[in-house]
Structures are given as C-alpha cells and as structure tokens.
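testing teh design pipeline on a random one, pls ignore if ur not involved
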C-alpha cells in the first residue's frame, strides 16, 4: 500500500512538473520580443503553438537527428546539439503566420527555455529528476543481452585528488550521504591507502590501471638523452608514449572494460576522453555517446550547468577577496571556464555514459574519473567551501549511477577510490618571493642559462643547449674528478675503489684545487652540508637552457642539462659547491635526493643525511615527518630512468599540515608530506582486502583479484 501511494505521488510530481515547465516555456517565448530584436511573435497564442510543436518535434525527430549527427556533436563538444536545438525552434516557428524569428533569436530562446527547465527540475526534486532521466535512458538501450551475463561487473569511480581525511570530513558534514549510507549499511568498507613517491595522477593511474608506473618521475620530467624534451603525463602526444612503455596488455580494463575520462586506458578498447587514446580519431565515435544526447534537453542541461558553474566560481573569487582568504591565488574568467569544463562537462559526460554502460550491461568493468574536486582544491584550497559543493555534486552523480544499477538486468559492484590526496599551503613563490628555478640559479655561474617555464609546459617540446666558455671549463673539471667520493665517508668506498680502475688515479685527482679546499675544511658530507656558506648572486636572464627546473606540486626537479647523464652527488658538489648546501638550508625545502657514485641514494636535509642503500643516518633523520615508507619510496624512485640531478621535496609541517608547491597552486600534490599521499578506497565489504595497500600497483592487484573472483561466482 505504501509503495502504491509513493507511486501515485511520483506520478503527480511528473504531471505537475511537466505543466510547470510548459507554462514557464510559454512565458519565455512571450517575453522574447522584449529580449531580442530578432524575435517577432505576433499573437500571444503563437507562443503556445510554438512550444507544442517543439515538444512534438523533439519527441519524434530528435532521436533521428541524433543518429545522423552524432559525430558532429562529438567533434564540436556538444555545441552542435545546441545549434540543432535552436534550428528546431526556428523550424517550427518559420511557417507560423505573423511570426518572424531569426537564428539568433531562436538560439537565445532555446537557451532560456533550457535554463528554466533545468531550474524547475532542480526545484521539484533533483533526485526525482535523476530517476526520471535514468528511466528514459533505460528505454533506449538494448537490455536483452544483459540477462545472459551471469557474473557481476565492477564500476570503479575515481574522485581525483580526494584524501581519506577530507572524505571523512565531507561525510561527517553531510555532503556525501550516498557514501555515508553505504558505509553505515556495511555494504562497503572504507580504507586508506598510500601512494608511491610521485603522488599525482600520472603515476597513480599508471599503477592502478596497468600495474606499472616505473620511470614516471613526476607529472612532468626531462628526457636528457632526447634533446632535453619535457614530458608531460597528460599531454595528448606524450600519454600514448607513456602507456606504450608501461602496458603489457593485461591492464585493469583489458577484459571488456571501459575507460571514461582517464589519463590511461587500462588496455581498454572502449574509451571516452582518455588522454592516451584521444588522438585515435577512428575510435572517437563510441556508441556510448548516445547516452549523453538521449533527449533534446540532456546536453542542453549540461550546458546550463556549465554556465552556472562559471557564475559560482566568479562569485567565489569575489568572496575570497572580500574575506581576504589566505592563501589565495589569481584565478579569473579563463580559469572559471576551465573549472566548469572539468567540474561539470566531464562530470556529466562520465555519469551519462556510465549510466548507459550499466543499463546496457555488456561491459564487464569500467573505470571513470571525476576531476572536479582536484581542480577546485588546487585553486581554492582542500577545505574551502567550494570543494564541499563539488563533493556534494559528485555524491549525487554516484547516486544516479546507483539508481541506474538498481534497474539494470546485470548486477554491478561499485568501488569508489581516489588516486592521491592533496596538501594545502601558500606556494614557494608566495612565501619567499621567488620561484624555485630562480632560487636555484643563484647558486650557479652567472652565464649559465636556464629555461623559463611558463604555466603551459605542454608547449615546450625541446630545449636548446648552447656552448659557452664557463660551462666548457666546468665540464673539463668534471671529467677529471669523475667516480670519486670526496669525503670517503664509508668503508664501502674502499671496496668500491678496489673494483674501479678509474679510482687508481685518486692521488692525482686529490690535487685539484676545488677538492683540496673542501677536504681541508670539512670532515664529511654532513659537516660540509651544515658548515658550507653558500654564496648567492643574480644571474642573467636567458632564453636558452643549461638548467631546467620543473615543479610537480611540492616536488621539484632540477636538471643540469649540459650533461646528458644524471650528475652524481660528488660531481655536483665539485662543480657547484654552493648548490646543495644552499638548497637544504632554505626553510621551504624539506629534503633533497641525489645519487652518490659510492653510496647510492642520499637524502639530505638541513640537519642530517639518510643513506638509502644502508638505511644509515648521520645527524637528524630528514625523513622523520614523511611517513614510515618514505625511504622505500625514495629508494625505488632513485633507480628510475630520467631522474633529475637533484630531486627536491618541500617542507611539511605536521601540526598545520602545510606544504608548499613549486608551482602556483594552493592545494597541491606530487611529492611526500601529509594528506597528499593518503587517498582512500571504498570497496564492497565481501571483497578480501590486504591489511596494507602501499603503492598504486597494490590497488591494481586488489581490484584485479576482486574482478577475477566475481567471475568464479
């Protein structure tokens, strides 16, 4: 009886909402002559006729036009659908007497109609709206094949950049009721996991989707042997090259899986907005796109929400300035548009296509990314009011997918996870008035030229390295001291010497002026780091590069590009004795990683050195605040190809949780320290999960194992 009453209430809502929308649309048409000179309506009854005919045309003709023009819609990112909507309005009004409407007037009218429709649906009940659209979509997909699928599929949804700590807060504040219900009903279990050293999407998704993120140094890095080419993980031309290196064909989605809005494909042949595959134009026209344009107002609704998000961001910028919220960064209208693209356009496309996938029931798995939180947190902060609004919207999207699954003939398990977290804090430049790159230049020769890195690093394909007298002299000196540990800190060095013919010339090498000065003044590396007074100077600006400094969140990469190989610790302190002490004594820097020819990886802080090969520590442990697995992550990373000559990690304040990015982002991630390395995974409670999940590959193994067991049921 209760279900019958609820059904009657829903039917009443449908009727009332439809009537309200119809009246609102008629009123908009009546008002159009006052809003546009390109719109002559004539008698007021023409407004009723136009809306009536438009409704019939959308019902009959829209599905036909969608089939014919789908490729055009996709190529134009949906703008084609908006144009078609305007043309249909123009078409139904064209033959009416007394009506004279131009294309411009028709487009404006349809925009206002879609705004009113979206607003009324939201006021009526957004959950009802989502169920209504999902049911419409379910009638348009082929459900016959789904019944034959006996085992459950898996839908994996990534909330980009969301740390478990922030998720807990969002659930506690009531912003994510869907996930809260899953946890309280014990259908799902929430667990924290730990990223690799490079806590960013490029490394994490490579590990999660392919089980391999080897040699992915950071979000961007330099290939010295490739003419100092800067590689950017998400770049449409670089991502395919990265995937070719990490893929073995057994990716997470290789067994009839779907990739939606990811950086890598997981070896799926069914992909939409996947960076590593987006240039494969022949596969761009996926049938799943029909879900996005299922009705005449489905994409128009996305466009309205897109515009609304731009206004929300502009409002946020004003509020931040009025309240003088710190730290804050310059945003503007361009960023507002980019934010809406990630937070609304991609979000809605992901949800609509996944809903179609679920209702169709043909795919065995899907992995999709909601990027909105990561984008907004970067610019507003990880706990700003803006991000709670974003997370609330994402929770509603997950609820929509849950509704789709509830009426699908095939069961799907849901896994919700993040690829990394974010840390908060003013940037290096905001704190100290200088970029990391310009700070590094202070400790190098005056005529040593550095590459100026703009915000759009994708534009830099290669860097040109000139020759000059000072650098040539330094190179000659480097060749004479190669393979020599200046301070002879460990007995292991003696064993190394006995195995190396090059070091038989050690007595001759020690006569060089630079080495003699350092050896006479300092007993060991720790003494050198603490006692050396680095001199600073201002270098000349230059367009050519012998130095490239990149930022990947709070991870900095310093490449001395005159040398094609990675310079060792011994070579760096002999060539540039000011550089390492100058770096580690800066308050914004937590530690650096360099590679010693004799001792392997050395993690150097202002008051101590950690030797990764032996786990030996001199002075204070520079990794004390960076987690129990920090040394393991650094040791693994130190063996990667294309490692920078010096890897820099910012400070981390355990009390405030602050880090500082080496790029202009308030919320950042990419290195070690705090919540950026502590994402979450919310998985079905009947899945077997290890006690610890460390590294992105552990998530790949866990998900793979879960999917394989579902096949056995």
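output:
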């Amino acid at each position: 009886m209760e279900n019958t009453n609820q059904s009657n209430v829903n039917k009443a809502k449908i009727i009332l909402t439809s009537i309200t929308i119809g009246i609102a649309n008629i009123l908009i048409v009546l008002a159009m002559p006052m809003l546009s000179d390109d719109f002559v309506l004539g008698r007021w009854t023409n407004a009723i006729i136009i809306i009536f005919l438009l409704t019939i045309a959308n019902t009959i003709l829209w599905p036909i036009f969608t089939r014919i023009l789908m490729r055009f819609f996709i190529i134009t990112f949906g703008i084609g659908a908006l144009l078609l909507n305007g043309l249909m309005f123009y078409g139904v009004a064209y033959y009416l007497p007394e009506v004279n409407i131009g294309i411009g007037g028709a487009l404006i009218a349809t925009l206002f109609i879609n705004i009113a429709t979206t607003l009324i649906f939201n006021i009526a009940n957004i959950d009802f709206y989502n169920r209504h659209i999902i049911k419409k979509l379910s009638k348009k997909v082929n459900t016959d094949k789904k019944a034959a699928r006996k085992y459950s599929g898996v839908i994996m949804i990534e909330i980009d950049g969301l740390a478990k700590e922030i998720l807990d807060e969002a659930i506690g504040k009531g912003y994510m009721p869907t996930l809260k219900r899953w946890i309280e009903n014990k259908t799902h279990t929430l667990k924290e996991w730990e990223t690799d050293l490079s806590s960013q999407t490029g490394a994490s998704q490579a590990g999660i989707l392919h089980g391999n993120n080897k040699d992915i140094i950071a979000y961007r890095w330099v290939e010295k042997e490739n003419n100092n080419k800067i590689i950017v993980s998400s770049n449409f031309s670089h991502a395919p090259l990265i995937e070719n290196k990490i893929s073995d064909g057994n990716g997470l989605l290789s067994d009839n899986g779907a990739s939606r809005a990811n950086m890598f494909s997981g070896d799926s042949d069914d992909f939409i907005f996947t960076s590593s595959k987006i240039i494969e134009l022949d596969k761009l026209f996926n049938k799943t796109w029909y879900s996005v344009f299922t009705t005449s107002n489905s994409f128009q609704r996305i466009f309205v929400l897109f515009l609304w998000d731009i206004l929300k961001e502009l409002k946020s910028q004003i509020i931040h300035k009025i309240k003088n919220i710190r730290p804050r960064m310059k945003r503007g209208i361009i960023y507002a548009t980019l934010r809406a693209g990630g937070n609304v356009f991609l979000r809605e496309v992901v949800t609509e296509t996944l809903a179609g996938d679920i209702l169709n029931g043909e795919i065995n798995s899907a992995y999709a990314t909601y990027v909105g939180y990561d984008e907004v947190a970067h610019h507003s902060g990880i706990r700003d009011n803006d991000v709670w609004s974003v997370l609330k919207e994402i929770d509603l999207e997950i609820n929509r997918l849950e509704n789709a699954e509830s009426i699908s003939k095939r069961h799907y398990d849901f896994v919700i996870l993040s690829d990394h977290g974010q840390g908060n804090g003013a940037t290096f430049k905001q704190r100290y008035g200088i970029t990391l790159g310009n700070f590094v230049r202070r400790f190098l020769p005056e005529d040593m030229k550095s590459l100026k890195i703009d915000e759009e690093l994708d534009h830099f394909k290669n860097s040109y390295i000139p020759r000059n007298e000072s650098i040539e002299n330094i190179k000659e000196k480097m060749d004479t001291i190669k393979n020599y540990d200046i301070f002879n800190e460990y007995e292991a060095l003696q064993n190394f010497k006995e195995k190396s013919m090059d070091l038989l010339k050690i007595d001759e090498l020690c006569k060089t002026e630079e080495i003699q000065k350092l050896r006479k003044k300092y007993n060991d590396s720790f003494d050198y780091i603490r006692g050396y007074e680095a001199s600073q100077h201002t270098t000349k600006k230059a367009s050519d590069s012998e130095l490239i400094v990149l930022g990947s969140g709070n991870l900095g990469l310093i490449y001395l590009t005159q040398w094609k190989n990675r310079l060792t610790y011994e070579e760096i302190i002999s060539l540039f004795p000011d550089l390492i002490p100058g770096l580690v004594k800066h308050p914004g820097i937590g530690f650096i990683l360099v590679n010693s020819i004799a001792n392997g990886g050395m993690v150097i802080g202002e008051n101590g050195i950690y030797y990764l090969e032996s786990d030996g520590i001199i002075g204070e442990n520079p990794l004390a605040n960076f987690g129990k697995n920090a040394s393991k992550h650094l040791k693994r990373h130190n063996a990667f190809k294309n490692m920078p000559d010096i890897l820099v990690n910012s400070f981390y304040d355990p009390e405030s949780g602050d880090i500082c990015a080496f790029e202009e982002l308030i919320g950042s991630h990419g290195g070690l320290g705090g919540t950026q390395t502590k994402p979450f995974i919310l998985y079905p409670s009947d899945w077997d999960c290890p006690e610890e999940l460390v590294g992105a590959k552990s998530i790949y193994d866990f998900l793979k194992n879960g999917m394989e067991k579902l096949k056995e049921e």
